[in-house]
TrEMBL record:
InterPro entries: DNA/RNA_pol_sf, Domain_X, RT_dom. This is Reverse transcriptase domain-containing protein. Keywords: Chloroplast, Plastid. Residues 1-327 form the Reverse transcriptase domain. GO terms for molecular function: RNA-directed DNA polymerase activity. One of its GO terms (biological process) is mitochondrial mRNA processing. It holds the Pfam family Intron_maturas2. GO terms for cellular component: mitochondrion.
Amino acid sequence: MTIPPFMDKIVQEAITMILTAIYEPYFESLNCSLGFRPNKGVHDAIIALTGANAIGLNMAIEGDIKSAYDKVNRKKFIEVLGRRIQDRKFITFLEKRLNYEFYDSKENKYIREKEGLPQGGIDSPYMWNIYMSIFDEYIINHLEHKFDKLNNKPAKGNIAPKQRRSNDKKRTTIKKILEWINNNNDESTLSRLKELMKKSAKTLKEENHFQGEPLYALKDITKTINLGKEKDIKQIKINLIEINRKILHKNLKMESRDPNRLKLRFIYIRYADDWIILSNAKLEIINQIKEDIKIFLKEKLDAELSTEKTLITDIKEKPAHFLGFEIRTYKSKKIGRYTKKSHQGKQITIKAITAGYKVFATPDRQRQINRLHMKGYCDNQGFPREIGFLAYLDDFIIIERFNSVIRGVVNYYAEFIKNPKTNLSRWIYILRYSCIKTLAQKHKSSVREIFKKYKVPKELKKPGENTIMAKVKNIINEEIYEKTWTLLTLKDALQAALRLKRKPYLNDIYWKLKNKEIITYEATDKHRITNDNFYEKLVWINIRTQASFDLPCFSCGSLENVEMHHVNHVRKQNYKLIDNEKTWLQAMSLRNRNQVPYCRECHNRIHSGNYGGEKISLQIPKKIYDNRIVTIESHLNKSALDKTKKLNYNKTLEEKGWQYKGKKRQRNRPT
């Protein structure tokens, strides 16, 4: 992993913009590479794998390439670029960009690799997509050709199994007999029917009985309705209707088509170096496809397929793993329910087996436990535990930090998995109780005492939910403001996530691209800088960091050897006694921050008494805004606040959830 310097990042961003303009229409037409592309993400891949076109696909190949980025053949990569780019200057420039040097601190020397893409670069992921586009084309073209050959271009429509076709013929015969009875309903109908049933189906057709149409299984039907014993034509009609109903019931339990004559299909999706193929082909064909892919990667891309990590999975038996999700399908077809009108005009509900095996996603359970354990939220068995370093923060900040993690987990999964309430409950439980245990460690108490201390009032408590709430009061210009922070429950987080309604939007995009329609995307990247004068509009700096070594020297602007100068006794000063013009000192007083960054040279001059520059308090910027949790500092400089309202850099206290509680009471002191 190499971290490029700032100017290199600017050049790499420009390269990415050029490559994106050239290759995006091509990637859109393929509609299978969904990683590190504008307007694409993980959920686009999950939509493709769990949509209507995935029904009935039960075999998966989970792909893995050994040392994917490190083994890229640069010569072949340039050849791939040459297919769509004719500008030789740009191609030559990219060749030089790939032949970079980096310093190896262990070897104490500069190294230039002969192969591979530079990881850590802004343009590297998109370059990898371009290199793997040959692989994308091969998978799509090779599998389409292979499956067309195996399908042997079958006739249109379903090819039903033999037993089902036989049952359908019986039902046709019963229908013709019932029509004949209804058209010839008199006293001689029973005797005439008995005479006709004694003849063979061939004779009946030749003599043009039943409109000359062939009748099937006459002997079986005659025996079933006891035609020789019945004396009432009405009872025969009832028996025929009953036979028809039983045959229909049997057909509903059968496959709609012959499982040995299925039309082979596949879905291929790649996200960066992770890829997966879903198909309904048999294991023998899937193994052959895996071997074909291994040979192609070796011969065409100088890449090696990891045979140990490239898994073939029957997702009826166990899930395939992809991008933090488990891709599954049902072991047997489910019973569906639909309504229809009866002959009497009433709405009736009918149960029937669904048409195919629906593919669905669930969270990758073991991966989530591993990640939560790695971050310190639980032990390796999934039991919640406290996070010690967070115990030094304020109570409301601890709650808000855990809320952000809960929102992130729920927003990632909620709309795209089956039964989100059931499948997410365990992880939200771990996060919630990790928060409560962190608060318990901070206050040296138990979980039960934390629930009592931060109890939600009865009027605000929702039935069936047990959570905690922290209140904060602040006095600003003799006015009292109050805000509460409530630890999110799974129900609240789910409701907020489902209101986003991203799945219908992404599903619509996927099917439009599949139908070769042109897509106009919504502007979603709100944090990307698009204004050339952005530098002039930066009016806030970070004042929460304990030691902001990434800030320049406030005196000379140097970025080297930056140290923190402590302003004497600022944290002990009374807020009211600080000059209104010195907004920086007011902010430090409110937040107990008393540090200002200076380079080592300026810092030494200050402490030695040789500092002859402008007064420190005059150098400090007067426009200071904090857009995070509590934003009292934004209201220190009222004139600056009014100027920036137009730029939407700031929100009022009410907009941020603070409630006005009245003015501070003045105590009468004896004179």
